[in-house]
Specification:
Elements lengths: L9 E10 L2 E11 L4 E5 L6 H9 L6 E6 L2 E2 L5 H6 L2 E4 L11 H8 L8 H11 L16 H9 L1 H5 L3 E5 L7 H16 L3 E5 L3 H7 L2 E6 L2 E7 L5 H8 L16
Parallel strand pairs: 3-8, 3-9, 6-7, 7-8
Antiparallel strand pairs: 1-2, 1-4, 4-5, 9-10
Helix pairs in contact: 5-7
């Protein structure tokens, strides 16, 4: 007899959401298994960022529910979801530009985790050694890539169950992109589940075990990433030939 599958660490069930009178998502269901990487794909305006904002509690859905670690959190505030193990790394860095790197890292330590803060800081500086020599530097004076690494440091300081990553490689040099993807692999290997909205569709699909394809606010595909025709996704939904030199761009939606 086959044992039942474990409950997903994050479940967005039949979500309808939008802004004011504009509906962006319609009856969207996404399951994120524990320790998995889920690639969230789709063209501009498909609803990817809206879905992440709904999961994080920044946007209340008009219909549907959100469950985190099996608990109902649809009406929970963002800080309550963060305390329960959800971490959102938004597009556009998401750091305090006027604070130093050290102050940013201290701000990211949860109130109940002060005793483990030093261990978390060690993990950050081991994973992103470039930040070690910049602890006293004002964050806004660093390069865009270094700022993004600082934003990702939150994942190592809060020990989240699930991380939502929204276009974290946008506009960055290839070397920094490689470093970010290496960090994503490390997080997943440690048991953290990740939902990845990413401009480099081919790389996202290489990492992901599951893929969800949004088209005009509805789910066009949900299942194993290996069963998704990568070239067809890029050509049909994103308008870029996989043989081309530039990455397939999937910006805010």
């Amino acid at each position: 007899m086959t044992s039942p599958s474990p409950a997903p660490v994050l479940l967005l069930s039949h979500i309808t959401a939008g802004y004011g009178r504009s509906t962006v998502l319609r009856d969207v269901t996404v399951e994120v298994p524990a320790g998995s990487i889920v690639a969230l794909l789709g063209p501009n305006g498909a609803g990817k960022t809206t879905l992440l904002r709904t999961a994080a509690g920044l946007l209340r859905p008009a219909a549907g529910s959100v469950r985190l670690n099996g608990a109902e959190v649809t009406k929970a505030a963002p800080h309550q979801r963060a305390k329960a193990g959800l971490c959102l790394i938004p597009e556009g860095r998401g750091i305090f530009r006027n604070l130093t790197v050290r102050e940013n890292l201290r701000m990211q330590v949860p109130p109940g985790a002060k005793r483990t803060a030093n261990a978390g800081l060690d993990r950050v500086l081991t994973t992103f050694p470039v930040l070690r020599d910049r602890l006293g530097q004002t964050a806004g004076t660093m390069s865009g890539g270094q700022q993004q690494l600082l934003a990702l440091a939150r994942c190592y300081l809060t020990s989240p169950r699930v991380v939502l990553l929204d276009e974290v490689s946008m506009g960055l040099a290839p070397k920094v992109v490689d470093e970010i993807f290496a960090a994503i692999v490390t997080l997943a290997a440690g048991g953290t589940a990740l939902v990845l909205v990413e401009q480099y569709v081919n790389r996202a699909l290489e990492l992901a075990s599951q893929a969800v394809l949004l088209d005009r606010g509805t789910v066009a595909y949900s299942g194993p990433s290996r069963d998704l025709d990568e070239a067809a996704v890029v050509r049909g939904y994103l308008g870029v030939d996989m043989a081309g030199s530039k990455p397939a761009t999937t910006t805010t939606g």
